[in-house]
Amino acid sequence: MILHFQDPAKLRTKKIVFEDAYGASDSCTLEQLKELSSKRRSIEESINESSSITEAIAREMSGGLTSHSQQVLQKLEQYLPLLENLIFHVNLVSSNRQIDQWAANLKIQWSSALCSSSFFNLMGPKFFQIGDLKFELQMMLFLYGAILRQRAIEILAEDLVQSATLFREAAGVYHHLAHEDVSASSQAYLLAEKPPEILSSVSTIMNLVCLAEAQAVTIRRAEEKGTSISLLAKLHHGVSEFLDEAAVILYAAIGECKDISSRFVEFISSCRALHRLRGQKYLAESLKTAGKVGVSIAVLRLALTNVKRHMPGEESWKSVFRKEIDDVAEFLRKLEHENGFVWREKVPAGDELPLCEGNKIVSTIPYRPKRWERELAFKI
C-alpha cells in the first residue's frame, strides 16, 4: 500500500468573468472571452462542488466519463489552451497600463490546499487574491497536476501501469510549474500572505512526491513479477531518496511561506520512513539468503527502532504503518528464534551494518502546454 494524500486537489476558487474585465474591440474577441468564462465556470462548479447538474448529465456532457476526476481533467484540458492564448495576447500589449488594470478587475481568487490555516477556518477556506493572469495559470496547472495524482490513486488497484504513468504526467506538470516562466509577478512573492502553491519550491516538492509515488507503484508491479529481493530493496530506498530531496526543499519552503500544512510535512516524512522500512526488510531478506543471519537481525532491529519514531498521527496512515511494523517484527522474531537454535551468529552493532544503495528508475513525463491560437483584439 502507499499512503494517500489528496489534499493538493482540494483547491477552491471564486467566480471570474473575463468579458466584464477585458474590453473587446470586436465580436469575435468578445465571444472568446465569454467562452473562457464558460469553461472556467464549469471548473469552478466541479471543484467548489456547487454544480446543480446530476451525475447522469455530467457523464453525458463529458462524453461518457464516469469518474469525477476524469471529468475535471477534461474541463481543464479544454480551458488551459484558451487561457494560454489570452495570456499570449495580453503579453503582446503588456506595456499598456489598461491591461494591468483589467487583470486586477478580474479579482482572481484561490484558496490554498497546502496552507495550514485553510483547514482551521470556521468561516470557510481562506482566499488569496493576486491581480495577475499568471496567478490563474499557476493555480490551474497546480490543480491539473493534483487531479492527475487523484486519478492515479483511483485506478491503482486495477491498472498499475496506467497509474504510474499518471503519476509521472503529474510530475511533469509540477516540473513545468517549477522551471518554466509561468510564475505570477514578482510582487506576488513579496506578499506577507501567499499560497504555497505559487512557490517554485513547492512545485519541485510535488514533482518529487509524484516521482516517488510512480516508483512505489512500479515496485508493486516488480513484486508481482518476482523481481529479486536485492533489487526491490534498492527500489524502495530509491523512493525514500526522492522524498529525502523533497524534505530538504520543504524545510527551505517553510522559510518562504510559514503557513505550510503540517499534514503535508507529515505525509512526506511518513512516506519516507515507510519505504525505508520496506527497503530494510528486503535488505534483511537478501542478507539472510546470503547466509548473514546475524547482520540481517541487526538490520531489522535498527529499522524497527527508527520507524517507530515516525509513526504518523492520522489513523489511515497509522494502520498502514502498524501492518508493516507487525510484518517486520514477525520476520525478526522468526530470525532470532532460528539464530538462537541453529546459526548462533553474533549480531553486530548498528554502526557495522551495510548501507543499501537506492535505485531511482522512474522519470518525469514532460508537460507540453497547448495554446488555442485565436486572434484577440482589445479596446485600448
UniProtKB/TrEMBL annotation:
Transmembrane segments: none annotated. PROSITE patterns: BRO1. It holds the Pfam family BRO1. Residues 1-380 form the BRO1 domain. InterPro entries: BRO1_dom, BRO1_sf, BROX. Belongs to the BROX family. This is BRO1 domain-containing protein. The lineage of its organism: Eukaryota, Viridiplantae, Streptophyta, Embryophyta, Tracheophyta.
